[in-house]
Amino acid sequence: MKKIHIILLLIVAAALGVVAVALGNSDSYATFEQALENPSRTYHVAGKLELNDPMVYDPHTEANLFTFSMVDNEGKKCRVALHKPRPQDFERSEQIVVIGQMENDVFQAKDILTKCPSKYNDAATQTVEL
Amino acid sequence: MDFVNETLWPGHLGNALILLALCSAAFGALAYFKSILPNSLNQIWKSWGKIALIVHSSSVFGIVVLLFGIMLTRQFEYYYVWKHTNTALPQSYIFAAFWEGQEGSFLIWAFWHAALGLIFLHKAFRSNSGVIATLLLVQGFLMTMLLGRIVYLPDLGIDFNIGSFPFGLTREHPTLMNAPFTKLPEYLLSLDGRGLNPALQNYWMTIHPPTLFLGFALTTIPFGFVIQSLIRRDFSSWFRNALPWAFLGVAVLGAGILMGGAWAYEALSFGGFWVWDPVENASLVPWLLLTAGAHMLLIPKKTKIVLSFTYVFLILGFITVLYSTFLTRSGILGDASVHSFTDLGLTGQLLLFLFFFMALPVYLVLPKRFRFFYLIAALALLAFGFSSQFSSISNGLWTFFGIASFGLGIYSLNQRLNPGSPNLEEHIWSRDFWMLMGTLILTISAVHLTVETSKPVINNLTGTSMAVGDVAAYNAVQWWFGFLLSIGMGVVLYLLYGKKRSKSLAKELGSVALVAVALTLVTFSLYPNMKVMPDALLLLGGWFALASGFLFVAKFIKKHPLAAGGGLAHAGFGLLMAGIVISMGQQQNVSKNQNEINLKALNEEFSNDEHVMLMKGDTVGMANYRLVFAKDSLNGSFAEYQIDYYSNSDEKEIAFSLHPRIILSPSMGNVAEPATRHFITHDVFTHITYVDLENLKRKSAGISAPEYEEPQHFELKIGDTVYSSNAYIVVEGIASVPGNKTDNDSGNLNLNLYPTFTVRDLQGNIDTVKPAFLIRGLSLQTIPDTAKGNGLVVEVVKINPKTSTIEVEMQRKKYQNQDDFIILKAVIFPWIKLLWAGCFLIAIGSLMAVAERFKKNGQT
């Protein structure tokens, strides 16, 4: 066996290691129920904003805290504490993904992704005025 | 029905040109492929191919001009024009609008292929029929993406569309054809377009996509050389011809990617220049592989391993472009990316595009007797997959087939490679060996990025639910590659090909290392809080590559100015690494929230103090500056803010003002646009993260703000604590006082209840409020009470004896100008100029190397 073959084997091992790291350390999409079961794990929870519950953002007290309620894709509602300012146009977001973990029945989110319906393709909802 | 003012000929012409471009591409590819194969009609096929190429390129140019034409003249009867432009859009953004949609961006990609095809008619390149054939073949696939034909055979359960036609009519578009206006003959007279997303209305959107697509198109050329070599069974003579093209691709694609980073930094609110977004990664991976392949081409005497890697890298460089096209355009990334395209329902077609070019090199490299079986197996699997709607069995078989094809291809390639090619071993201190190692590191980096970015695909295939990693997860792995590559590319410049070793090697590397260590120590003393791993190590690597590159350039610049290109590019990479470590790692959050209320108690991991509130007119001290929120105004479709920065040393004079703004778009959402002040030593970046836009709109309309905040409703028990409007409220109890007797004549219950609350606000004021709840027989009277410090008005609206709860409404009187605030994030990026200088050097260095190689090839 030549040196180069040994090195190639090492490289393949390194590549496999990198793949294992990428797949093994991955956060998962989950529901609030699963997040409740594993309070110390970080999850991505997708769902919709619950408009009937109060959205509290009081920057005069704390600019980096925004609380609201969200219903996940299984229909479970949960209070979310986002440790960031309130996203602009938040009430219009159609889909939300919060990233964080459950703590005392409140989902503590360090980040959020929102999708505004109108940013995307919604030709059908456009009204053309004549 | 006749529609007034519609101009339909561009649509018909566009349709004809797309069909012509498709047919000429198919015929041209066939003719050029035929011309390579040994037969007596070679020359005739070649001239036919040439005609087809010219017809094809002209058609593509025609389509582009036509689409530009109807966009410039705002012919809203065409859906693409309607969707991406409107009357208000300045003409300078027509380019941006052109490639905002999938159809336009396919077109700009096809445009570059067509232009490159014509360049290959030049006498210096025209012997490469296989390259032209490959270009035309790719063009054939791209043209099908613009066809817009619906295949609907309900009996067979077939219902899909081929491509998306850029000249489709607005009133015939599936999402609009039922809208009432499409039935009015005069609809066009009052129809305006939807317009271009304001976030994309900037010059970056004008220059970044075409550069990136030229880079993509340039990966096709080395791939074409590979295909040509496999057909011609020529495994050596093509390297020198492919070399400058490969490096041109490296330069242009690299520039395109970095422009995306610059855009993200300047105009978007990413708060950095690279966030490892799946779409960013999708264009970085082809660059890594193309760079690896281009460097393999440099090695003059290729061993078998180097030879096979050359093929693999150049093939994968192109395949990953197709894969990234699939990722970003099929909608599979979904929530994982901020800037993927709208799903046009072309997933199946994009997969075919990808699979065809994955299978093509394998097919060509196989011995003739196996080709037929391979083709049958591939077609059978494809048919099975599509007919079973991508069932898990077919997905498994496809994955297996893909891996098997890869192995089979490599094996057959090794069998084919000229046995006469040197089968020697790379010398450890040879340039060959270090280049090989460098390309392998590039590959591992690409593997990591691909796996991470492909998680949505893996989820689809295996039913897992993995989320794409965050920036920290990427950085934790990728910095290793940055470090190893920097060291490697520093060393490799002083090594020689083959067995010879430069006598001055130890001396040269020694002085490079000395400079690198010195620079690192200086930087470290400036930023003593820098982490050793990864920051200081990566910095050391960066300075090493920089020093090595510059010393190399100094050595060659007189003798051989163009040969210095490689050294310059390597120096640029080093500078880029150093720039990243310093500007990103040492970024200083100016807007550290100095609020005394500590909600961090929740969880240390979630503590966040990046964003700070600024009241209008207030001065807030932050790092070296004092910030004043001076002005806000509504200006057309922009909400503009002025932040004055005073330096701490100078009391009165404004150091500078920044004008971050919010682009207002009722239909597409509001987008914040940061403002940055550039200094040589640092940038001050300011970004508005939240603002009460309604308040600004009210103010500009002259309407005064509401006196009270929105009321909040609670149902509480004695002992409960709630948080509302800046205060914690505890229900202490209910004091009951019998009512006045004179009111009790009717014999009904007459009771005065005084629920008692303690209001403790976050400024430390404590007050007791006692709203009254008076029962007068059948009628009720409530008297709200106000907390003194906090201004909270508490009213008890209902008492439920059954559940022993009380229902309370709380509302706080706003204090003056309460809504006149902005939430701001301000960051200092030190020495970010180094990062841009690094990018610039990489581009210039690569282009110099390209020029040198073209010149060399021309001479002989």
N/C terminus separation of chain A: 79 Å
Rg estimate of chain A, integer Å: 21 Å
Helix content of chain B: 40-55%
State the end-to-end CA separation of chain B: 67 Å
Structural write-up:
The complex is a heterodimer of chains A (130) and B (860). Chain A is of the alpha/beta class and 130 residues long. Chain A has a single domain (27-117), classed as Nucleic acid-binding proteins (OB fold (Dihydrolipoamide Acetyltransferase, E2P), Beta Barrel), CATH 2.40.50.140. Helix content of chain A is 22%, strand content 32%. Chain A contains two helices and six strands; from the N terminus they run H-E-H-E-E-E-E-E. Chain A has helices spanning 3-24, 32-37; strands at residues 28-30, 43-49, 66-72, 77-82, 95-103, 106-115. The longest helix of chain A is centred in the N-terminal third of the chain and has 22 residues, at 3-24. The radius of gyration of chain A is 21 Å and the shape is elongated. In chain B, a hairpin with a 5-residue loop joins strand 20 (785-786) and strand 21. At the A-B interface, helix 1, strand 1, strand 5 and strand 6 of A face helix 14 and strand 12 of B.
Compact summary:
The complex is a heterodimer of chains A (130) and B (860). Chain A is an alpha/beta fold.
List the helices and strands and how they pair.
The complex is a heterodimer of chains A (130) and B (860).
Chain A: H1 3-24, E1 28-30, H2 32-37, E2 43-49, E3 66-72, E4 77-82, E5 95-103, E6 106-115
Parallel strand pairs in A: 1-2, 4-6
Antiparallel strand pairs in A: 2-3, 2-5, 3-4, 5-6
Chain B: H1 9-36, H2 42-72, H3 79-84, H4 94-98, H5 102-119, H6 129-144, E1 149-153, E2 158-162, H7 203-232, H8 239-266, H9 278-298, H10 304-329, H11 347-365, H12 368-387, H13 392-416, H14 431-453, H15 455-462, H16 471-492, H17 505-526, H18 532-556, H19 565-585, E3 588-589, E4 612-615, E5 619-622, E6 625-635, E7 638-647, E8 654-658, E9 661-663, E10 671-673, E11 675-678, E12 682-691, H20 693-701, E13 712-716, E14 721-724, E15 727-738, E16 750-761, E17 766-769, E18 772-776, E19 779-783, E20 785-786, E21 792-800, E22 805-812, E23 821-830, H21 832-859
Antiparallel strand pairs in B: 1-2, 3-23, 4-23, 5-6, 6-7, 7-8, 7-9, 9-10, 11-12, 12-23, 13-22, 14-15, 15-16, 16-17, 16-18, 18-19, 20-21, 21-22
